[in-house]
Amino acid sequence: MEKPYVMAVRKLYGALDSPSTMRALASLFEHDVEFELIPVDFQAGELKKMPSLSPFGELPVFQEGDLTLFESRTIMRYISHEYGKRGEEQVYEIPKLQGIAAAWIDVEDHQFDPPASKLIWELVFKPQKGLPTDEGVVEEEEAKLVKVLDVYEERLSNSVFLGGDKFTSADLTHIPSLYLLMKTPVKRLFEERPRVRAWYRGVMSRPGWEKMVEMVEKVRA
Amino acid sequence: MAVLKVHGSPFSTATMRVVSALYEKGLQFEFVSIDMKVGQHKSEAFLALNPFGQVPAFEDGDLKLFESRAITQYIAHEYASNGTQLICPDSKKMAIMSVWMEVEAHQYDPHAAKLCFELCIKPMLGLTTDPAAVEDLEAKLGKVLDVYEARLTQSKYLGGDCLGLADLHHLPTLHYLLGSSAKKLFDSRPHVSAWVADITARPAWAKVIAMQKS
């Protein structure tokens, strides 16, 4: 029987090799939100043709009817508040609990992401572009990441997930960096810390992870 | 009501961000001064409040929070019915405000903070301002402010028609930059200039600045 044509209400403009796009994808998949991915060739300057979409010229951009959002963490927060599945919401209604989850979303942004993204640049993107890895930078940034992971290890002794007793955006927001770093020797830093190890393996078993990876890797196959 | 406490420095932009939200809401709070010159922010007592050893840290009864923008969001939600409304009840409008909150953190603040360091902090520490760095940072911040100028032709405030956290979060670095040669970046863009004049004139903001004098 013919499948009825369903018009996509939601669009995600993104690049499948971009961690920011991966964050938005993970959030959409985690909440079972239907959307159409519109790949944008960032390197070919395609985004510059759409200044009204993204005034800072960055991906991803999310459109839902007449709502246009950019900044992956905004898209992630909007999806989690708007499309929480009843009984499985990934936000807290009580401000005190949501405040804690929000703090750990910002921890990923301000503490984890700086060393993580530099390591991803050195160990994943540079080799892809045929550029040499700077081992000095790798050593420096691993030392910084270790300090952050030590705090995570301590946090996870008091809390099942980073944001609280349930999986939230505070955990999900790490998905792009975890996905890329697990393919590098940096993986050992996560493996060496038992609670961090259990936590990241739990994140890897989420539908948001699995479906994001499937979409990203299908393009490469 | 439980005691609200802010642990920080009245000169720290992140601390000022939190204090501005408390004054806008008309909330009473205790200010615990953290002496960073003697490393108090790395003491065990402070690390128990913020394991990353950065000001500010915040307490509301048994709730302990850190990360200034998470703290302001908490205050805005928990005390929604007090003082100035800083968030939008409508989820789509809040999403738009949230975009500009992330813009402040990712596009504006990196350049603004470094410019503050060159133009305001370095002289205080007896270090020399790097003119090449200033020129580079002013160019980058200028490009961000061009986007702000376009945005503010369509919207009274950055986050939407009403003042909110997206605007408030800019105040601390704005305050320092307005006292420096970087002021020209804001003055030369009419909508940005009007927005700056509006938000810096708020009585709650004057109270934050007054804390630096006591």
UniProtKB/TrEMBL annotation, chain A:
CDD domains attached to this UniProt entry: GST_C_Phi
Reactions the enzyme catalyzes: RX + glutathione = an S-substituted glutathione + a halide anion + H(+)
Domain GST C-terminal residues, every copy: 94-221
Pfam families the record matches: GST_C, GST_N
Top-level taxonomic group: Eukaryota
EC number(s) from the headed UniProt entry: 2.5.1.18
Transmembrane segments: none
InterPro entries recorded: Glutathione-S-Trfase_C-like (IPR010987), Glutathione-S-Trfase_C_sf (IPR036282), Glutathione_S-Trfase (IPR040079), Glutathione_S-Trfase_N (IPR004045), GST_C (IPR004046), GST_Phi_C (IPR034347), Thioredoxin-like_sf (IPR036249)
Domain GST N-terminal: 8-87
Compartments, as annotated in UniProt: Cytoplasm, Cytosol
UniProt keyword list: Detoxification, Transferase
Keyword Transferase among UniProt keywords: yes
Keyword flag Transferase: yes
Family statement drawn from the similarity comment of this UniProt entry: Belongs to the GST superfamily. Phi family.
PANTHER family: GLUTATHIONE S-TRANSFERASE RHO, GLUTATHIONE TRANSFERASE
Protein name: glutathione transferase
UniProtKB/TrEMBL annotation, chain B:
Enzyme Commission code(s) on record: 2.5.1.18
Gene Ontology terms for molecular function: glutathione binding; glutathione transferase activity
Domain GST N-terminal positions: 2-83
Record flagged with keyword Repeat: no
Keyword Transferase: yes
SUPFAM superfamilies, A to Z: GST C-terminal domain-like, Thioredoxin-like
Any GO BP annotation: toxin catabolic process
GO cellular component term, pick one: cytosol
Compartments it resides in: Cytoplasm, Cytosol
Pfam families: GST_C (PF00043), GST_N (PF02798)
Domain of life: Eukaryota
Domain GST C-terminal intervals: 90-214
Reactions that this protein is recorded to catalyse: RX + glutathione = an S-substituted glutathione + a halide anion + H(+)
Principal place of residence: cytoplasm
Keyword set, alphabetical order: Cytoplasm, Detoxification, Transferase
Family stated for the protein in its record: Belongs to the GST superfamily. Phi family.
Name the UniProt record assigns to this protein: glutathione transferase
Species assigned in the record: Vitis vinifera
